[in-house]
Amino acid sequence: MITQLRQVLYVDLTRRTTQIASRPELFAKYLGGAGVASKLLLEECRPNIDPFSPDAPVIVATGPLVGMFPCMAKAVAMFKSPLTGNLGESHAGGHFSSALRFADCGAIVIKGASDKPVSLHVENGNVRVEYASSIWGLSPLQVEKTLRPPDKEGIHSVTSIGRAGEHLVYYSAAIVDRYHHFGRLGLGAVMGSKKLKAVYVRGSGEIPIVRSTEFKAAYEETYRQVVETPLMMKYHYLGTPTNVLALNALRALPSKNFSKSTYEKADSVSGERFAEELLERKISCPSCPIACIHLGGLRTSFAPDHELGVKEIFEEMELVPYNYEPIFALGINLDVSDAKDVLRLISRCEHLAIDAIMTGAVLAWTTEAYEKGLITADETMGLRPKWGDVETYLKMVENIADVRNPLYVTLARGVAVAAEKYGGKDFAVSLGKNSPAGYFTGYGFVVGTLVGARHSHLSNAGYSIDHMAIAHGKSISPEQIVEFLVKEEDWLNVLNSLVACYFSRSIYEKDLAVKVLSAVGIEETKEGLMKLGKEIFHNLYSFKLREGFDLTKEKIPKRLLETESPAGYLDPKVIQHMISHYIRIRENEGLRLRPEEKALMDLVVPK
Q1: What is the mean pLDDT of the chain?
Q2: Domain 7-203, CATH number (from 3.40.50.300, 3.60.9.10, 1.10.8.60, 3.30.1490.100)
Q3: Can you give the residue ranges of every domain in the chain?
Q4: Cβ-based neighbours of 576, under 8 Å, separated by 6 or more
Q5: Which of 80, 459, 530, 598 lies 20 to 30 angstroms, CA to CA, from 274?
């Protein structure tokens, strides 16, 4: 029988050794997920370490409600990001978190580096490191088919990297169970530096219900909210691609490298268009009834004229996961307006295991840089990128993944590094060295992305308070926006410790979170959970600051101030004031964000 989370698996790839340690106090304090991972990251990651050092850890954690309540299925990974040089945090759905939970393992800490490709296998209490040269170079789909056994009981999961990770592309991803991702900030590259091609987990244990009556009531209440209210309906029907037309109507849909806030061809890549023309099926994570993962069918011909005189065209169909972010990044932001072409670009990123959002940002910057003469066809290996040219973009993605020449080596390090070397900082759209998502809603989105611990729109949902102001015609002050960002990120850290799906945040509000935890024997209060969320945030920012991050020196790219949002043109003085207010709030909590006593001088458009 599996009890509350308590075990941490430590893996040394250099020596190919493993050890399981019982750490109940860690899980009692931090619950699981982001909380446990944040503490382990501070413990295991030496200050100022190279992200590709053998001693740089990869940490993955599950949560206490996995396998018990709806929408509790995320796994949280933390590491030092090669892209930003500080916090790497990424979340993935699929079976990984459930398999880990049913293997009675709360977290894995992976250190060391192998001299040959290896895979890590965790099967209940049996842990081993196996040589994996035969699968090095394969796509994640091929790895998944190779490693997943057909006939063993329990929940299985395969996480693997592609060529981008093998070649240490700074924003390479790790693909989980074909259709899910540790997508952002370069986990794939860190795994590649360790020669860790894949992690296979199988769990077949049982979780006892300790308070059956209380559990039944809490489960039924949660399930009803998930399936019988409108709170999560959009994720089932069209999924997040429903955002395309909604954001376009708000004039908050960035296109052509954020140079505009609408897209005149939005209908052609809308969620409705994808559903009508390409949708083949929907799938769910374990314990989730929503089925938000939408799979498009990409048909390609093969074996023409395979026999003399036969002129048939044979087709095969690949299922490709799509959602709003890759549609924005690889379609709208590049002026690729055919839904099938967007799916082709998504498919290429899936096979190479590379972050679609940053890939789109890099391609958009490269297109403008080429237009402006900052780079030449000699440097692009003869390619001439232009808006909407899907064939050229497909080749460029391959070149980036394979780091084929000095330009592509630079592009493999992200937009900020490319602009530092070749110029074009004004239109190099990145915040904290991470590429922003496709929501140009106003101050909440821009400031929220910059101050968030992982520089993601999911850190604190800044776009949502912008949308609230737009939808209800409310006037929300810059100070109120900042105060929302602080509270929201603290609470999301709690949900990320429970490993709740982000889409279910409107279900798992504070009262329900306390109730479901009590139903499994974990007694918490709303105040205690908020205090925990703040402590986790402090853990994450302490790591960032320790690794050299300085919020006062971050720049807002000029492009984000030149394009009109629903809030009008963003004023750098307002942004500067918001950052100052944010710093005051966090410093009043005891977190030191400024290295010196000085006014904010640098957080403006580069001169």
Answers
A1: 95
A2: 3.60.9.10
A3: 7-203, 238-427, 443-588
A4: 600, 603, 604
A5: 459
